[in-house]
């Protein structure tokens, strides 16, 4: 018995001391605190519903009435854009045709063009109109024809007037008396036509000479 006591007593005492030391160390350590994050508080459903706009019958009718107006405005803008582009293209084509008619046509087709400066032939030919003439044999002209010729007095300017009388000259030529349709009397001269042809009026292009 004494042998067991001497052997087991210190060993058991040592184990107990070790356990006590371990427990004492655990007790002296600060306790760990677990922090659990809180979920964000959901927005009240009733408050969100209260903030939403209320659709009244008047608002619905106003929105329905505005929709066709928006479509109409968009359609109008598209049509206006196409019309403007069409007008622009048409003006370019017209300008090109006028250029060809005035600059190239006389050289190729043989007609002549001039701009009427006065109103002496109104209303048939007004100031700014383009007078188109073709060379015509003098023997083919007659009273009532409108011709473009150089007057025999003053600065010998070009005039476009109507023939009122044709008279043969002593040397076999042709003399003409002319008058402007808008003038009260005949021209104060008699013009003797030179050469074998005279420019006879065949067409009028209104207003192009003012461009």
Q: Order of strands in the sheet with the most strands?
A: 1-2-7-3-4-5-6
Largest sheet: 7 strands, antiparallel
Instruction: Write down how many β-strands occur, each being a DSSP E stretch of 2 or more residues.
Output: 7
CATH superfamily of the domain at 112-210: Umud Fragment, subunit A
Order of helices and strands: HHHEEEEEEE
Low-confidence stretches: 1-16, 31-36
Model description:
By secondary structure, the protein is of the alpha+beta class. Among the domains are: 67-110; 112-210, Umud Fragment, subunit A. The protein has 3 helices and 7 strands, in the order αααβββββββ. The chain has helices spanning 2-28, 45-51, 57-109; strands spanning 112-115, 130-137, 146-150, 158-168, 174-179, 191-193, 197-205. The protein has a 7-stranded antiparallel sheet, with no helix packed on it. A hairpin with a 7-residue loop joins strand 3 (146-150) and strand 4 (158-168). Residues 1-16 and 31-36 have low confidence and may be disordered.
């Amino acid at each position: 018995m004494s042998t067991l006591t001497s052997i087991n007593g210190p060993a058991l005492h040592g184990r107990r001391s070790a356990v006590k030391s371990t427990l004492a160390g655990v007790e002296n350590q600060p306790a760990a605190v677990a922090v659990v994050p809180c979920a964000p508080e959901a927005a009240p459903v009733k408050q969100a519903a209260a903030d939403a706009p209320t659709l009244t019958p008047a608002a619905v009718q106003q929105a329905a009435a505005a929709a066709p107006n928006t479509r109409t405005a968009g359609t109008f803008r598209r049509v206006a854009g196409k019309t403007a582009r069409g007008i622009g293209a048409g003006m370019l084509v017209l300008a090109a045709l006028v250029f060809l008619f005035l600059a190239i046509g006389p050289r190729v087709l043989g007609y002549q063009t001039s701009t009427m400066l006065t109103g002496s032939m109104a209303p048939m030919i007004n100031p700014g109109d383009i007078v188109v003439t073709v060379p015509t044999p003098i023997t083919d002209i007659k009273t009532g024809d409108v011709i473009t010729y150089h007057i025999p007095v003053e600065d010998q300017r070009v005039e476009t007037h109507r023939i009122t009388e044709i008279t043969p000259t002593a040397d076999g030529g042709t003399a003409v008396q002319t008058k402007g349709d808008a003038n009260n009397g005949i021209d104060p001269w008699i013009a003797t036509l030179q050469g074998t042809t005279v420019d006879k009026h065949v067409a009028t292009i209104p207003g192009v000479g003012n461009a």
